[in-house]
Amino acid sequence: MKMKVGMRQQRGGQGFSRSLKEQRSRMYIVMRCVVMLLRSHD
Length: 42
What we know:
Elements: H1 2-10, H2 12-41
């Protein structure tokens, strides 16, 4: 258990950038869905 926590602390920067990329890709997917829904209403 302690080893895993240590590894997390060492790669904290990478984990943060990875989560940031995940958030951006999620927002991109959500925006595309919204655009498709708006277009389908037309």
